[in-house]
Amino acid sequence: MVNTPDWLLDSFPFAVLILDGQHYVQRSNQEARRFFGNQADKGSHFAQRLNAGQHRLPSPEAGSNGWVVDVVEAPDKHWLYIFREDAQVAWVSEDTERMAFEDPLTGLPNWNILAQFVDHSCSQAQRYSRSSALLRVDLDHLRHVNLELGRSAGDEVLIQAAQRLQNNVRSSDIVGRLEGDSFLVLLTELTNDRGGNARGGDSGHLPVRGRAAVVANRLIAAFRQPFAVADAQIKCSASIGVAVCPEDARLANEWMETAEMALVQAKEKGGDSCELYAEALKQSHQLKKDRHAALEEALRNNQLQFRWLPAMGPEALEHYWPEWPEQTMAGPEVLDLVDSAGLHGLWAKWEKAYLESHKGEATRLAPLASAWLNPGVDTAFLLESGWLWEVDEGLLHHRYRLESLLHLQEKGLNWVLKCGHRGLQSLAVLGKLQPKMLKVPIPAKPSLEHIRLLTATACVAEAFKVEFLVSLPKDAEPPLVAKLNPRWLVRTP
Q1: Hey, what CATH topology would domain 102-277 get?
Q2: CATH superfamily label, 364-491
Q3: Which CA distances in Å does 57 have to 14, 87, 104, 290?
């Protein structure tokens, strides 16, 4: 389909988009360009992602036909989207549209519609030299509000936060909620803004970044005022990251990423501040992208090695220094690269091959990374017999990861439930799941309470007919071993 002649694509009566693996447009036909406009131009980022299969999307306009979308994943890592109108997929009601595009708590636009605004603004900024700015806004202490005063108090803070954001920008700007305590503010057409309105008051003589900073600092000041919730005065400041298009980024996804990086910088400085995506951040961003590319190439070409000692599963990364051509860094840094670049599947395949090649030195009991239980990650490789994958008990508090683990268990996953030093925290976990083994680490000098907790946890495991494994430290002394029940399995890393 990628090599189909243009005249044949244009003869299709339906809108056709051919996207690469990152969802950038490679090809489109006349019908797609008519309907999607700039979003169908070659090189544009198509924000809406759909899984392979057929989807039915109602029209956002009353009285208009809806769409049937056929999505095909091509073997060459391309995606084929075919859109065709269908009168039976009708616009249902204003409530349906509101649920699709509006955050139910604050009434602000959600990401479904924000993505389209960001894409459009990015295109306009480049085509007509109209600079725009993205402000990523996170509340600093909402988690403490939820813990101390309850979820309802936190929801009220979010509602008031949305109002403060709207009250401190121009009516032409867009305020939306991403998720949780995260908001997005899109400041449009900063280049042509001369003086702003009564609420804005931005000087027309400031450079674009300066105007964006004025708005960001005004929002910071607004959030320093306490929130009135019931009879309480709640302090909940904000952190803001600012990025400008096209000065800082020329693609919508890069624009979001640069704003996110600036936000992280603001948070690292303690919050209650704004940070602009500046030259230093730009260099750091490019360095990280180069490292992503180098790590991906090293994994594909099997060039990754470890200094000093052979690897023994992902936990080895906490102690050893991986290296590949012209790159050496600490294990946690590599894990951060794997996570931020989305290389979990490639990393897992390389890791298993590495462990297979070091059978005499490595163990087949390996920790299972949390990201491998994320929805949409291909984890079929985990089902190979002979492997035991350690699952940290903390991962199971995440509903989607718990569902993923249940699905893998039904398919034949062999796994071990790893507890903390305090033993099993939730008996309900063993009621829902059937691990092969329960693993509990023990400190080098355990107290009497530790031994009692081990005994209690072992009794729970025995009641559920699950093997019990005690993980001893490397420097465990013989008297410690003598305290353990001889029926328990004992392993020293």
Answers
A1: Alpha-Beta Plaits (3.30.70)
A2: EAL domain (3.20.20.450)
A3: 15, 11, 20, 38
**Range(s) within the chain of domains with CATH label 3.30.450.20:** 6-96
How many angstroms separate the CA atoms of 125 and 133, rounded?
A: 10
Q: b/e for 50-71, b at 16 or more Cβ within 10 A?
A: eeeeebeebbeeeeebbbbbbb
Residue ranges, CATH 3.20.20.450, the chain: 364-491
Q: What is the largest CA-CA distance in the chain?
A: 82
What amino acid is encoded at 378 in this protein?
D
CA distance 261 to 71: 32
- The segment(s) of the chain belonging to CATH 3.30.70.270 are 102-277
The model's pTM: 0.47
pLDDT tens, the chain, 493 aa long: 556 677 777 888 888 988 888 788 888 898 888 877 777 888 887 777 777 888 777 654 445 566 788 888 876 778 888 888 776 554 444 445 555 678 888 989 988 888 888 988 888 888 777 889 999 999 998 888 888 888 889 999 999 999 999 999 998 899 999 988 999 999 988 864 444 433 444 444 568 888 899 999 999 999 999 999 888 889 999 999 999 998 888 888 889 988 988 998 888 888 899 999 876 577 777 777 777 788 788 778 877 765 544 444 444 444 445 566 656 665 556 766 777 677 777 777 776 676 666 554 445 667 777 767 876 666 777 777 667 788 888 777 777 788 888 888 888 888 888 887 666 666 666 767 888 888 887 776 777 777 777 788 788 788 888 888 877 776 666 666 666 666 666 655 4
Count of beta carbons in the 10 Å neighbourhood of residue 380: 9
Class of domain 6-96: alpha beta
Cβ proximity of 480 and 444 under 8 Å: yes
Tokens 């988009």 identify what position? Answer: 17
422 C-beta neighbours (distance < 10 Å), count: 12
Distance of alpha carbon 479 from alpha carbon 331, whole angstroms: 34
**Which residue in the block uniquely carries the two structure tokens 């089902």?**
383
